[in-house]
Amino acid sequence: MVSIKHLHRVQALLLSGFMSFIMSGIITLINLGFVENFLEIWFHAWIIAYAIAFPSILLVFPIARKLAMKIANRE
């Protein structure tokens, strides 16, 4: 198991994986339709998207958390 002090990294890893998987699949389907080698193309697109998404989330997550806290505190 991973220490709780690394929770934000684990969350970023999981969120970026799920979101990039879903988004790359949808965008690939929209752009190409269900072509013969769809899964291969999707997997390739997902790997690229994941490589971009994970470091992006690590950078943006602290900012998003601060903004969310400000919005949530406006009650």
Mean pLDDT: 91
Oligomer state equals: single chain
What is the 3D shape? Answer: elongated
What distance separates the N and C termini? 37 Å
Secondary structure: helix percent = over 70%
Work out the count of structural domains: 1
Roughly what fraction of the amino acids lie in strands?
A: under 5%
Most strands sheet: none
Order of helices and strands: HH
Number of helices: 2
Number of strands: 0
Kindly name the structural category.
mainly alpha
Protein architecture, described:
With 75 residues, the protein is an all-alpha fold. The protein has one domain. 81% of the residues lie in helices and 0% in strands. The protein is built from two helices and no strands. It is elongated and about 50 Å long.
Write the layout of secondary structure elements.
Elements: H1 7-32, H2 38-72
Helix pairs in contact: 1-2
Descriptive labels:
elongated; 81% helix; 75 residues; mainly alpha; 2 helices
Describe what is shown at a glance.
This protein has 75 residues and is mostly helical. It contains two helices and no strands.
